[in-house]
Amino acid sequence: GNEPAPETLTDGFHLLIDALKLNGVETIYNVPGIPITDLGRYAQAQGLRVLSFRHEQHAGYAAAAAGFLTKKPGICMTVSAPGFLNGLTALAHATTNCWPMILISGSSEREVVDLQRGDYEEMDQLAIARPHAKAAYRILHAEDIGLGVARAIRAALTGRPGGVYLDIPGALLGQVMDEVEGQKSLMKVVDPSPASVPNPEAIDRALDVLKSAKKPLIIMGKGAAYAQADEKIKELVETLGFPYLPMSMAKGLLPDNHPQCASAARSLVLKESDCVFLIGARLNWLLSHGEGPGWGEKGSKKFVQIDIEPSEMDSNQKISAPLVGDIGSCADALLQKIGGKWEKPSEEWTGAVRTKVQGNIEKMAPRLKNNNSPMDYQGSLGVIKDLMAENPDVVLVNEGANALDQCRSIVDLHKPRKRLDVGTWGIMGVGMGNAVAAAVETGNQVLAVEGDSAFGFCGMEVETVCRYNLPVCIVIMNNNGIYRGDGENWGNTDDPSTTVFVKDSKYELMMQAFGGVGVRADSPDALRQAINEAFASRKPTLINAIIAEDAGKESGNIGNLNPSSVVAQQ
Ligand SMILES: Nc1ncnc2c1ncn2[C@@H]1O[C@H](COP(=O)(O)OP(=O)(O)O)[C@@H](O)[C@H]1O
Ligand SMILES: Cc1ncc(Cc2csc(CCOP(=O)(O)OP(=O)(O)O)c2C)c(N)n1
Ligand SMILES: [Mg+2]
Questions:
Q1: If you average pLDDT over every residue of the chain, what do you get?
Q2: 320: exposed, middle or buried (Cβ count in 10 Å: 0-12, 13-18, 19+)
Q3: N or C: the chain end with fewer CB closer than 10 Å?
Q4: Is ipTM strictly over 0.95?
Q5: Which residues are bridge partners to 103 per DSSP?
Q6: Rounded distance between C-alpha atoms, residue 68 and residue 352, angstroms
Q7: First-to-last CA distance in the chain?
Q8: Measured between alpha carbons, how far is 309 from 482 in angstroms, rounded to an integer?
């Protein structure tokens, strides 16, 4: 007849999913619940991978790690109020680490929240998110979903990457509109993280400073890993010929056993160098703000810095040659100007560094080859060092205090972006989220080296690992406590401040509870065998590695950051 064709309708649920898919999103890390449960189901129906965790914090950590690994925003989706707050820790963690992530949380309608009428899980989430995120937006109308998603994606990726909050009031999802109009309202973001090229004067100034240095040093940070300019970075480092220090998540950009790697001579090069070339690394607490006894006398060093964030320059020390731009473009421009003609630093400097490196490696080597039972950190991590050399594509996840510090210095990485740890905050509990993201985003085997306290922050997610049958092998460095089981002041277990855990905790039974492989390892030989079996089977595995209670020290290498009481000493 002549009645108009029934208009086809779309709704907020489907527009949000279409907008995410249009912008290349393939995976969502979430915990389902009102009002987003159907959103997750529809997303799955439209081909997105939707992984459900046991707690939103770990879904968020996975999304943050996914952003670091892929240069695409990791997506975490949560329910309102408590679910949003659980995800917010991860959003702030992503922002602190300069990783792209979007936290999408369901929320209550404005008219209810603004009158504080007491809704189910009512909270003014947008206001709360804003101070902890790089950007925060709320969408009220279905026809704005395309715009809102596009803004969130661009904000997460452009310039210095970071975490973005996207507030989705429940009623938005149910709003309907014409399908054709809906599709037209969607926006595919064009070039969200454009090449940022340094100006030629900056290149000349930087090369002048680097050329005049007698004892130059390169420090590469996780920004250099994130940049995915691996070949250019390698070419630049090898052309300059400087010794270099990789910060923990930059390890593997050049293999840790590279002749220019100065990690084993860290104290010498930080103290003796006269010029430090920072590449995607901030002079923050991890580098003692570029000052203090470890850095030689004040003013004795010149700094050259590559960073995509202009305001990072001079944040802690005067930067003589700021190079504002993305690392790939800066490396390109520097190599162009060098044009293959570069005088490498004197053998006096590079030779002295290499001698110190080799000396320290030789001194440490025998300690890595013990078969003590219970184990110490050196013998256990010596096994993991060998296994990572034999399996360079394995992604190493790491957290703890001694378990972190010892693993960072003992276990070499041989490829970029194969180490995921506690990041700039030094946050505990990221291990399982990191492990799930690494397995899902790379498809590679994952080896998670966890302090037993750190594991305690995220242990329930072993069920998530088992449910998705992920190739994750967890090694718990079980020294029976935080830092050390017999902690100096915390010997007795009925002391409320104690950090000693249940004697002989059987963590391996947790993994068995969910169908994974759970084993105990009392010696390095047993540990090697258990890990090799996990790598062969690619089954979810938890190894309870028994470490001597007195093997570590409180807070690992950063105990000096603790305030101390003068009155207590009286
Ligand atoms: N593609 C990029 N190009 C240049 N700088 C980048 C890029 N991505 C991130 N950054 C910068 O890298 C730095 C990372 O520093 P940081 O997180 O302190 O590393 P680390 O902790 O490993 O030293 C940040 O200042 C960030 O702005
Ligand atoms: C969210 C958060 N809460 C507390 C802390 C403080 C902390 C830093 S390291 C650590 C645990 C160290 O014990 P573990 O057994 O993992 O390692 P080991 O030294 O090998 O025994 C805690 C509690 C941090 N950093 N983040
Ligand atoms: Mg411990």
A1: 95
A2: middle
A3: N
A4: yes
A5: 76, 165
A6: 35
A7: 97
A8: 37
Cβ 101 under 6 angstroms from ligand 1: no
User: How far apart are the C-alpha atoms of 416 and 424, rounded to whole Å?
Assistant: 18
pLDDT in tens, 112-152: 999 999 998 899 999 999 999 999 999 999 999 999 999 99
What's the CA gap between 519 and 245, in Å, rounded?
36
> Position 352: which residue type?
A
Residue with tokens 């890595």: 368
Tally of CB atoms within 10 A around 55 = 20
* Ligand index nearest the alpha carbon of residue 553: 2
The enclosing H or E element of 165 equals: strand 163-169
Cβ proximity of 253 and 271 under 8 Å: no
Ligand number nearest CA of 552 is 2
DSSP helix/strand/coil, 157: helix
Residue with tokens 């180490």: 419
Of 560 and 117, the one with more pLDDT? 117
Ligand with minimal distance to 282 CA: 1
Among residues 46, 104, 44, 97, the alpha carbon closest in space to that of 69 is found at: 97
Rounded-to-integer distance, Cα 133 and Cα 83, Å: 16
- Which candidate, 399, 401, 409, places its Cα nearest to that of 378? 409
The sign of the CA dihedral 489, 491, 496, 500 is positive
pLDDT at 488: 47
Report the atom number in ligand 2 closest to the C-alpha of 406: 20
Residues sharing a CB contact under 8 Å with residue 366, sequence separation 6 or more, in sequence order: none
Phi then psi for residue 457, to 5 deg, are: -75, -20
Ligand 1 centroid from CA 470, angstroms: 30
pLDDT range class, residue 473, cuts 50, 70, 90: very high
Q: Which two tokens stand for residue 199?
A: 């100006």
Q: 414 with 387: CB under 8 angstroms?
A: no
- Counting ligand 2 atoms within 8 A of each CB, the residue from 378, 449, 453 with the most, and so the one to mutate, is 453
Q: Are 179 and 18 in contact (CB under 8 A)?
A: no
Cα–Cα distance, 522 to 375 (Å, whole number): 7
User: Is pLDDT at 93 greater than 50 in this prediction?
Assistant: yes
Task: Output the CA–CA distances (angstroms, integers) from residue 201 to 198, 213, 313, 332, in the order listed.
Answer: 8, 19, 16, 15
CA of 279 relative to ligand 1 center, distance in Å = 7
| Number of helical (H) and strand (E) elements in the chain, helices listed first | 23, 19
- pTM of the entire predicted model: 0.96
